[in-house]
Design goal:
This protein has two domains: 115 residues, HD-domain/PDEase-like (Cyclin A, domain 1), CATH 1.10.472; 88 residues, Hypothetical protein af1432, CATH 1.10.3210. It is built from nine helices and no strands.
Length: 220
C-alpha cells in the first residue's frame, strides 16, 4: 500500500541512489546539481498546485537518469531514463497506475522529445526542468553547454548582429542566438500558474543580462 510514510521512504532511497549514480559524471549542465534543483523546484510547484508529491518527486529525480550512463548513438536520454526508471521502480511495491504516471512525466519533460504532458504532475516536472534553464542558473548552464558543444566555427555572438535583430537565428554557430531561439521562449511553455510566475521573474533577469551585454558592447 502506498502510504505517505512508504512513499517518503521510497523518495529518500531514490534520492540517495540517483545522487550516487551521478557521482563522477562530467556534465555540469545535466549532472546531480541539475537533478537536485529540478527536484526542489518540482516539489515547490507541487505544494502550490496541489499535485501528487510522490509522482512528481520520483519523476523529477529520475527524469535525466539516462544521462548517468553512456548515451546510445541513436537513442534519446528520455527513453533511456524511462528504461532505467522502470528497473529501479521494479523493486518497490508501487501501483501500476502510479508507475505509469511517473513514466509519463519522465518522457514528457524533454523539450526535444515533444511529448505533450497529459497530467498535472507531468506539467509540474516539465516546468521545473525548464525553469532550471532560466534566470542566473540558466545563464550559467547556457555558457557551460555552449563551451562544451562548441566547434572551431562557433562564435560567442554574430559579429555584426549580436542580438539577432537581422540575421536568421543560428545557435549552432552563435552562442548568444540560443537566448532568442529557445531560452526567452520557455516561459510561454509553462503549464502551471506557479511555473509561469517563476519563469516571468527569471526571464526578466535574463533580459536584464542581455541589456547589460548590449551596453558593454556598445559602451553606452
Amino acid at each position: 500500500m502506498e502510504t505517505i510514510q512508504h512513499t517518503e521512504q521510497i523518495l529518500t532511497q531514490t534520492y540517495a541512489e540517483v545522487q550516487q549514480r551521478f557521482t563522477g559524471l562530467d556534465d555540469l549542465a545535466h549532472g546531480w546539481e541539475h537533478i537536485q534543483r529540478v527536484y526542489t523546484l518540482a516539489l515547490y510547484i507541487t505544494e502550490h498546485e496541489r499535485a501528487n508529491r510522490f509522482i512528481v518527486g520520483m519523476a523529477a529525480l529520475l527524469h535525466d537518469l539516462g544521462r548517468s550512463v553512456p548515451q546510445q548513438a541513436d537513442g534519446h536520454h528520455a527513453d533511456q531514463s524511462v528504461t532505467l526508471a522502470r528497473e529501479l521502480l521494479a523493486r518497490y511495491a508501487i501501483a501500476p497506475a502510479t508507475q505509469e504516471a511517473i513514466m509519463h512525466a519522465i518522457i514528457a519533460h524533454s523539450f526535444s522529445k515533444g511529448v505533450q504532458p497529459e497530467t498535472l504532475e507531468a506539467y509540474v516536472v516539465r516546468d521545473a526542468d525548464r525553469l532550471d534553464g532560466l534566470g542566473a542558473i540558466g545563464i550559467m548552464r547556457w555558457a557551460v553547454t555552449g563551451a562544451v558543444r562548441r566547434t572551431p566555427e562557433t562564435r560567442s555572438y554574430h559579429p555584426d548582429d549580436p542580438f539577432a535583430e537581422q540575421h536568421a537565428l543560428d545557435d549552432k554557430h552563435y552562442m548568444l542566438d540560443h537566448f532568442y531561439r529557445k531560452l526567452l521562449t520557455l516561459g510561454e511553455t509553462m503549464g502551471t500558474e506557479t511555473g509561469r510566475a517563476l519563469a516571468q521573474q527569471r526571464t526578466a533577469f535574463m533580459r536584464t543580462y542581455l541589456d547589460e551585454f548590449r551596453r558593454e558592447l556598445e559602451l553606452k
